[in-house]
Write the structure tokens for this entry.
Amino acid sequence: MCLIKQNQQLDKLQSYKTLQQGFVLILVLVLLAVLTLIGVSSMNSANVELKATANAKQHQIAFTVVQSILEFAISKDGAALIDFQTNNPATQSITTHTVANGSSVRADAVYAGCGVAVGNSLEEGKGFSYNFFDITGSGSNVTGTASSVQTQGIRYPAAACSL
């Protein structure tokens, strides 16, 4: 009787083994599919981050180019191209350049108004006169995918202020 019970238990054990042989294969295939999806997702994320970094670099180039043209416009050489004694609100083109990397930049000055400072005289209106200008710089990168427009104010002594 003991031998019969052992044979029955052995038959049950063998039937469990035959039922579980395909389960490991299915489990491994599911895990492989999940790992593949994680890998593809991380590659897509890396590509998006790479494009965002390249875009930020192009915007920084455009910003820097426009900053340099504004600095030129308010420097001694650039200011020599502006008629500071005018009260005409027409745009004065200061300079248009193509930079070494192929970017095009432009700076314009627009008369913004006149003002009289307090001065050291007790007489009203006898202080220094100033003309105010808005210097606008604009530029883009070589491909035109990034651009920057910046404005800076400048104050210049004037002969007189006609308010």
Observations:
- DSSP finds two helices and four strands in the chain.
